C-alpha cells in the first residue's frame, strides 16, 4: 500500500435525485424519491427488502436490468443529467459519471477473464490506453486498493481469490474511472466481519484521499454509523427520513427509523437470553399498501395513516421525515 | 427406541478429537465440543474456519477422518445409530428458500421428517398444524407453497420442520443472516422462546457477535480448524484473551457515529440534539 | 494439470480396454458359427474344421482371450471374413471420408446452431416460428430429413451428385443433413447459457463499465458459454466419428458407417468388432481433447475433478 491514488482535485460531484420513480412493469419499486448528496460526502441508503434501495442504486448508475424503467424524475451528477442520456452518451457516462460496486463480488467478476484484464479493459476501451499502459494502470489500481503482490494477482482468475480480495478488485474497477459518484450496493454484506472492516477502512481512506461522492446502500445500522455523513431511510419504495448521521442516531423522527435503531441498539446492549426488540410483521413483499407504507407495522398508526400518504416534511435543519404524526412524536 | 439411561453428568452431545482433511488442506484439527441439555453453544468463525464442516460432521452429512461424536454418551456409528440420532437433532439453515423444495407445500415440508421416521401415520396432520402454530404461523394454510411467504415466515417453516421429530438438539447454521434486520430479531426471539419451552439445546453457527452474546451460554472461537478460545458468552465478548477473538470484536462496526473506529472521523461541530425518548445510551 | 491429464489418459485407456473385453464376450455369446459364415453353406465338415483351427475356435476361452488381447494391442484387429483383408486397414481406408463428413457437419451445426441461439438469446421476445422449427427438427427422424434432401436436391433439382464418390460436392447433402439435425441442440445450449450469462452479475459489471453491447457479448459472454458448447462438440465428434450409419447409407457416402452396415449384413464379426474398438478409441480421444480445450478456455473447468 505504498502508492496512494493521486489525490489531484476533488473527484466527487454533487448528486441530485429529484422525484425519481422506477417501475418493473406495473410494479412501482421506487416512488418520488428526492435527495441531494453534497460533493465529497457519503450518504447511506438504509432499508430492508422491498424498500427500493437497490433499485435506487441501479437507477442512479443507469444500469437497471431490462424490464425495469425510470418512470419519472431525474438523477443529476455534477453537470450531467444521467436520466436524460441515451445510447452512446449514456454508455460513456457509465463508470465515469457513476461507478457501481456490486454486492456479491464473486458473481460480479467474470470467471473466465484474468482480474488484471478486467481492470485494464476499462483503461483500454474507455480511456484509449495502450495494452501495456492499461496493464500497468491495472497493476497500479490493484496496489491502490491494498492488494499485495499486484503483479501476481493481476494474472489470476477471480476463482483463485478470497471474497475480500474480489471485493477489492471490484473497487479497483470502479475507481479506474475516477468516477464522480461511487454507488456501493451493500459491498460488504457477503464478507466476514474482519474483511468488512478492512473494506470499510479502505473505502473511507480512498474517499478522503480523492474526495469521492459515495452512495452506500446497506441494511446494517452499524455500517451506517461508521461510514455515513448523511442517511436516507427507505421503506416500501419511499423515502421516509433523511438527515445527517448524528441527528439520525440521536434524534430520529420517523417511527420506522426509531424502531430500526431500537432493534439495532438493543441487539448490542440487552443482556443474555433477553428477548430481542422487534418490529412486528415483515416488509411488504408485493408492493406497499395504500397510505403510509409503514402503517401496518407502525405502533402509532391511526386511520389517516392507512389512507393518506404522508409527504416528506422539514422537521429541522437538513432533516426531513414523512409521517403524519410527527407532532405527537418528539 | 429404548435408549439406555445415560449416566448423570453425561453431556447431551460430545464430540472429541474431530479431524477432517481435504487432501492437503486441514479443515478441522482435533476439535472437541460439548453441549449440555437446554444450553446454547455458539461456534464463531469466519469463512474457512471449518465451522460449517463441523456442523455437517456432527449431523452425519460428512464423515470425520478421526474423532467420535457421542449423543447421550453413546457413540454414533453405523447406519442404525445415525438414523436414531437424526431423529433427536433438527437443522435450520441460512437460506430458508434454498433449504426447502419449492414444489412441496409448507405442510409437506414440515411433515417430511415425520414421514422419514415413520411418525406421520398417527396424527401427523394434527402434529403439522401444531408445529406451525408453535412457530407463530397461526392461520397459515398447510396447503400453501413456500413462495407465498416472506423470508421470515419461510424460516419459521424451516424451524417447524426442524422441531417435527421433537429433537433435543437443533443445529442452527446462520439462521438469520439471510433475513431482514427487523425480522432477524423475531426469529431469534422465537428460538429463545422454543428453547425455554422445550428444553432445547442449540448448536449455533454464526458470525454475528451481537447475536452470539445474546443467545449463547458458551462460545467456541474457531480459526483455521482449531478452537482458539472457549468461554462463556460474557467472557468472550467482554474480555477476549486470544488475539484473534480480539480482532474479531474489534472489527465489529460502531454502535453510534460518535464511536467510529473504522470509518472516517466524524466532523462534530453541531452539539448533539436532545436524545429521543427511548434511545438507550451507550453504557460503556 | 499434468497429473490431471495423466489420470484422464489412464481412465481413457481403461475404457478402451473394457470395450475390447466386451467385444470379445460378445463374439463368444453371439449365435452362429464364424467358420460357417466364412466357408459358406456348402462347406464340408473337414473345411470347417480347418477354418476353426485357424481361428483357434476350439481353444479354451482364456487362451482365445489372451490371443485376442495381444493381437489387438499390436494393432491387429483381425481379418475381415467377407473380403479377406486386415480389418484395421479397411477401417483406416474409410476413416478420412468419415472424418471429412464429421468436420463438415460440425461446422454446419455450430454455425447454424450458434447463430440461431445467439439470435434468440438477444431477442427480447420468443419467436414462435423458431420454436416450431426447433421442435420439428428435434423430433424428425434422421432418415426422413435425409430422404427429403436427397429427393429435393439429388433428384428433383440435381444440384449435388450422389454417386458414391467422396468429393466435396458429394459431401454437401450428408453434412447439411447431420448439421440440421444437430443445430437445435446447439441453438438451445447457446440460447440458454447465453441468457444466463446476460442476466448475470458480471455482465452487469460489464454494462457498468460502459462497454458496448458488441464488446460485452464478444468478450464477456461468449467465453463463458464456450464451455458447454465445447462439451456438446465433444459428444458430437464421438458420435460422428464412430460412424453415422443412416446418413452414410442414404447418401452412399463411403465412410465407416456404410462399412458397418455391410459388415452387419455379412455377419463379418472381425470387421464389426474392429469398428467398435476404433470408435471407442476415437470417442475417448475426442473426450480428452475436449476436456483439455475446456480447461484452456475456462479456469473453472481446470479445477474440476478428473
Q: What's the count of strands of chain B? A: 10
* Amount of beta strand of chain B: 15-25%
Structural class of chain C: mainly alpha
* Oligomer description: heterotrimer
Strand composition percent of chain C: under 5%
Q: If you average the pLDDT of chain C, what whole number results?
A: 83
Give the CATH topology of the domain at 98-302 in chain C: MetI-like fold
Stretches of chain C where pLDDT is under 50 for at least 5 consecutive residues are none
Could you report the average pLDDT of chain B, rounded to the nearest whole number?
Answer: 85
Shape of chain C: flat
The sequence of SSEs of chain B as H and E is EEEHEEHEHHHEHEHEEHH
What is the CATH C level class of the domain at 10-88 and 205-251 in chain B, in words? Alpha Beta
Radius of gyration of chain B over all CA atoms, rounded: 21 Å
Residue share in helices of chain B?
25-40%
Count of DSSP E strands of chain C? 0
Describe this structure in a few short sentences:
Helix content of chain A is 35%, strand content 22%.
Description:
- With 330 residues, chain A is an alpha/beta fold.
- Chain A has a single domain, classed as P-loop containing nucleotide triphosphate hydrolases (Rossmann fold, 3-Layer(aba) Sandwich).
- Chain A has 12 helices and 12 strands.
- In chain A, the strands form 2 sheets. Chain A has an 8-stranded mixed beta sheet with strand order 6-7-8-3-9-10-12-11, sandwiched between helices. In chain A, strands 2-1-4-5 form a 4-stranded antiparallel beta sheet, covered by helices on one side.
- The relative contact order of chain A is 0.15.
- The N terminus of chain A is likely disordered.
- A 6-stranded mixed beta sheet of chain B has the order 6-7-8-3-9-10, with helices on both faces. In chain B, strands 2-1-4-5 form a 4-stranded antiparallel beta sheet, covered by helices on one side.
- In chain B, helix 3 crosses helix 4, helix 3 packs parallel to helix 5 and helix 4 crosses helix 5.
- The N and C termini of chain B lie far apart (52 Å).
- The mean pLDDT of chain C is 83.
- Chain C contains 14 helices and no strands.
- Chain C has a domain of 205 residues: MetI-like fold.
- Classes of the chains: A alpha/beta (330), B alpha/beta (284), C mainly alpha (306).
Amino acid at each position: 500500500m505504498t502508492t496512494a491514488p493521486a489525490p489531484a482535485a476533488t473527484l466527487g460531484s454533487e448528486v441530485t435525485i429529484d422525484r425519481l420513480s422506477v417501475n418493473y412493469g406495473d410494479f412501482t419499486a421506487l416512488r418520488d424519491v428526492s435527495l441531494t448528496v453534497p460533493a465529497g460526502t457519503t450518504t447511506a441508503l438504509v432499508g430492508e427488502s422491498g424498500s427500493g434501495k437497490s433499485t435506487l442504486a441501479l437507477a442512479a448508475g443507469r444500469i437497471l436490468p431490462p424490464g425495469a424503467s425510470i418512470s419519472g424524475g431525474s438523477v443529476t451528477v455534477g453537470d450531467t443529467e444521467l436520466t436524460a442520456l441515451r445510447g452512446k452518451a449514456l454508455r460513456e457516462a457509465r463508470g465515469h459519471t457513476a461507478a457501481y460496486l456490486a454486492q456479491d463480488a464473486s458473481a460480479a467478476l467474470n470467471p473466465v477473464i484474468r482480474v488484471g484484464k478486467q481492470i485494464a479493459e476499462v483503461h483500454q476501451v474507455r480511456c484509449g490506453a495502450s495494452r501495456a499502459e492499461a496493464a500497468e494502470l491495472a497493476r497500479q489500481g490493484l496496489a491502490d486498493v491494498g492488494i499485495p503482490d499486484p503483479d501476481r494477482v493481476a494474472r489470476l482468475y477471480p476463482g483463485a481469490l478470497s471474497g475480500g480480495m474480489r471485493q477489492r478488485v471490484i473497487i479497483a474497477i470502479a475507481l479506474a474511472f475516477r468516477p464522480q459518484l461511487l454507488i456501493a450496493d451493500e459491498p460488504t454484506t457477503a464478507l466476514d466481519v474482519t474483511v468488512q472492516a478492512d473494506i470499510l477502512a479502505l473505502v473511507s481512506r480512498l474517499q478522503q484521499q480523492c474526495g469521492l461522492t459515495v452512495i452506500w446502500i446497506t441494511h446494517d445500522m452499524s455500517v451506517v454509523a461508521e461510514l455515513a455523513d448523511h442517511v436516507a431511510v427507505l421503506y416500501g419504495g419511499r423515502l421516509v427520513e433523511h438527515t445527517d448521521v448524528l441527528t439520525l442516531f440521536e434524534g430520529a423522527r420517523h417511527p420506522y427509523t426509531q424502531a430500526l435503531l431500537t432493534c439495532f441498539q438493543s441487539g448490542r446492549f440487552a443482556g443474555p437470553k433477553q428477548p430481542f426488540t422487534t418490529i412486528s410483521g415483515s416488509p411488504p413483499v408485493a408492493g406497499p399498501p395504500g397510505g403510509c407504507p409503514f402503517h401496518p407495522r407502525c405502533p402509532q398508526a391511526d386511520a389517516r395513516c392507512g389512507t393518506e400518504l404522508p409527504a416528506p416534511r422539514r422537521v429541522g435543519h437538513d432533516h426531513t421525515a414523512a409521517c403524519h404524526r410527527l407532532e405527537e412524536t418528539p | 427406541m429404548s435408549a439406555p439411561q445415560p449416566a448423570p453428568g453425561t453431556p447431551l452431545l460430545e464430540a472429541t478429537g474431530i479431524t477432517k482433511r481435504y487432501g492437503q488442506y486441514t479443515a478441522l484439527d482435533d476439535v472437541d465440543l460439548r453441549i449440555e441439555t437446554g444450553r446454547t453453544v455458539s461456534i464463531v468463525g469466519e469463512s474457512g474456519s471449518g465451522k460449517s464442516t463441523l456442523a455437517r460432521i456432527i449431523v452425519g452429512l460428512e464423515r470425520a477422518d478421526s474423532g467420535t461424536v457421542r449423543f447421550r454418551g453413546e457413540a454414533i456409528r453405523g447406519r442404525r445409530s445415525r438414523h436414531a440420532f437424526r431423529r433427536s437433532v433438527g437443522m435450520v439453515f441460512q437460506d430458508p428458500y434454498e433449504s426447502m423444495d419449492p414444489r412441496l407445500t409448507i405442510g409437506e415440508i414440515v411433515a417430511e421428517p415425520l414421514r422419514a421416521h415413520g411418525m406421520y401415520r398417527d396424527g401427523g396432520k394434527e402434529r403439522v398444524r401444531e408445529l406451525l402454530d408453535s412457530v407463530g404461523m397461526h392461520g397459515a394454510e398447510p396447503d400453501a407453497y413456500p413462495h407465498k411467504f416472506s423470508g421470515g415466515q419461510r424460516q419459521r417453516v424451516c424451524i417447524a420442520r426442524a422441531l417435527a421429530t421433537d429433537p433435543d438438539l437443533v443445529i442452527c447454521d446462520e439462521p438469520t443472516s439471510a433475513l431482514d434486520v427487523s425480522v432477524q430479531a423475531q426469529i431469534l426471539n422465537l428460538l429463545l422462546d422454543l428453547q425455554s419451552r422445550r428444553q432445547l439445546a442449540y448448536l449455533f453457527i454464526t458470525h454475528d457477535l451481537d447475536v452470539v452474546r445474546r443467545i449463547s451460554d458458551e462460545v467456541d472461537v474457531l480459526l483455521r480448524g482449531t478452537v482458539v478460545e472457549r468461554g462463556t458468552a460474557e467472557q468472550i465478548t467482554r474480555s477476549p484473551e486470544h488475539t484473534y477473538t480480539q480482532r474479531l470484536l474489534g472489527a465489529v462496526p460502531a454502535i453510534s457515529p460518535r464511536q467510529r473506529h473504522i470509518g472516517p472521523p466524524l466532523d462534530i461541530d453541531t452539539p448533539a440534539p436532545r436524545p429521543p425518548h427511548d434511545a438507550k445510551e451507550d453504557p460503556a | 494439470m499434468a497429473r490431471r491429464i495423466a489420470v484422464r489418459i489412464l481412465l481413457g485407456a481403461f475404457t478402451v480396454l473394457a470395450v475390447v473385453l466386451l467385444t470379445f464376450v460378445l463374439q463368444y455369446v453371439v449365435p452362429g458359427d464364424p467358420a460357417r459364415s466364412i466357408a459358406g453353406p456348402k462347406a464340408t465338415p473337414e473345411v470347417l474344421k480347418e477354418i476353426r483351427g485357424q481361428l483357434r475356435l476350439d481353444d479354451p476361452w482364456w487362451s482365445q482371450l489372451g490371443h485376442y488381447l495381444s493381437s489387438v494391442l499390436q494393432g491387429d484387429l483381425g481379418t475381415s471374413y467377407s473380403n479377406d483383408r486386415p480389418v484395421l486397414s479397411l477401417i483406416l481406408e474409410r476413416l478420412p471420408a468419415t472424418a471429412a463428413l464429421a468436420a463438415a457437419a460440425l461446422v454446419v451445426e455450430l454455425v447454424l446452431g450458434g447463430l440461431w441461439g445467439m439470435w434468440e438469446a438477444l431477442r427480447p421476445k420468443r419467436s414462435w416460428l423458431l420454436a416450431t422449427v426447433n421442435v420439428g427438427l428435434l423430433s424428425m427422424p434422421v432418415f426422413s430429413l435425409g430422404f427429403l434432401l436427397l429427393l429435393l436436391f439429388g433428384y428433383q433439382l440435381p444440384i449435388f451428385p450422389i454417386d458414391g464418390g467422396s468429393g466435396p460436392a458429394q459431401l454437401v447433402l450428408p453434412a447439411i443433413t447431420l448439421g440440421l439435425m444437430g443445430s437445435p441442440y446447439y441453438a438451445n445450449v447457446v440460447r440458454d447459457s447465453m441468457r444466463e450469462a446476460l442476466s448475470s452479475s458480471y455482465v452487469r459489471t460489464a454494462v457498468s463499465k460502459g462497454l458496448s453491447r458488441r464488446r460485452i457479448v464478444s468478450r464477456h459472454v461468449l467465453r463463458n458459454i464456450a464451455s458447454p458448447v465445447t462439451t456438446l462438440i465433444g459428444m458430437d465428434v464421438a458420435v460422428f466419428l464412430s460412424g453415422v450409419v443412416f446418413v452414410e447409407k442414404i447418401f452412399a457416402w463411403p465412410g465407416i458407417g456404410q462399412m458397418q452396415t455391410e459388415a452387419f449384413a455379412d455377419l463379418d464379426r472381425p470387421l464389426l468388432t474392429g469398428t467398435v474398438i476404433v470408435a471407442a478409441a476415437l470417442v475417448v480421444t475426442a473426450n480428452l481433447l475436449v476436456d483439455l480445450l475446456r480447461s484452456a478456455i475456462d479456469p473453472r473447468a481446470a479445477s474440476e475433478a478428473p
